[in-house]
Amino acid sequence: MMRLYVLGSGSRGNCCAVEAEGMALLLDAGFSAREIERRADAAGLELARVAGIALTHEHADHACGAPRLARRLGVPVLTATGTWARLADAMGTAAHVPIGLRVAVELGPFRVEACPTSHDAADPVAIVIRTSDGTGVGLACDLGRPTAAVRYLLRNLTALVLEANHDEVQLRTSGYPPVVQHRIAGSGGHLSNRAAADLLAELHHPGLAVVVLAHLSQRCNSADDARATVAPALRRAGFVGTLHVARQDVPLPVIEVVGVREGQLGLAL
Ligand SMILES: [Zn+2]
Ligand SMILES: [Zn+2]
Q: How far apart are CA 25 and CA 167, in angstroms?
């Protein structure tokens, strides 16, 4: 069993964490260190248990709090090599652990896997955390399109935090200049609600228990719109778990990540 904390998500900051066996791993640190401490406190996550900070890419809304937090907590930072090259100066004495294709990292109870994503950053990745009981949590935000590598990495997960950035019609009528619209909708940009729904339907399997929609655009999306597009597609695929929508300003209540089969067994007992 893992616990999933979604401390906040959106273009103004992203931070999640997983916890198992008394240890935790931060997934992105895109608020100030002080704000992450405040949110962790509110969500009941003890930062003293954090064993590392894994970052998907160097954009400020995913990484701005990492240097200070890594130094303060005395923990390593897990990133792809190209991401570290961009962040190393700011990181000072913090230790780096490279993640990426074919590099599975063991940190306490966590096995950390990653693969490249299509996004306009130096070396962006999607990240999957697995524990020895078979539970798997995935984080895929800021991806212009889901590549074969992403689909492969995100298979057989118990919980998935996936970007549902924009509604395609709202983006077209948003008033953003065409060049910005192209950047958001393009292969180096962000996943739409429709694309997230299609990917989730494809990734669905009987063990998928939790889906969290994340990185919603404030201007071109709403929690209701994201849910209205994704929920029917998940239901059609056979999903019987829980669907959450991450919020920018406040953490979600802690999510217990229990496999569907494991949960049913618990009920039967
Ligand atoms: Zn972002
Ligand atoms: Zn980004």
A: 31
Ligand 1 ion local residues (Cβ < 5 A): 61, 142
pLDDT (tens digit, 9 = 90+) per residue, 55-100?
999 999 999 999 999 999 999 999 999 999 999 999 999 999 999 9
Compute the distance from residue 59 Cα to the ligand 2 centre, in Å: 5
pLDDT of residue 187: 87
Name the nearest CA neighbour of 39 among 84, 75, 7, 73. 7
- Domain locations along the chain: 2-260
Please give the distance, rounded to the nearest whole angstrom, from the Cα atom of residue 183 to the centre of ligand 2.
11
2-260 is a CATH 3.60.15.10 domain? yes
| Ligand 2 center from residue 163 Cα (angstroms) | 11
CA of 119 to the centre of ligand 1 (A): 10
The answer to whether the beta carbons of residues 234 and 243 sit under 8 Å apart is yes
Q: Which residues are near ligand 2, the ion (C-beta closer than 5 Å)?
A: 59, 142
> Would you state the structure tokens that stand for residue 259, as one six-digit string?
């496999």
The alpha-carbon radius of gyration of the chain (Å, integer) is 17
Contact 54, 79 (CB under 8 A): yes
Ligand 2 center–CA 119 separation, angstroms: 7
Given a contact cutoff of 8 angstroms between Cβ atoms, the answer to whether 52 and 23 are in contact is no
pLDDT mean for each 10 residues of the chain (269 residues)? 97 97 98 98 98 98 98 97 97 96 94 96 97 96 94 97 96 93 92 97 97 96 98 97 98 91 46
- pLDDT at position 105 is 97
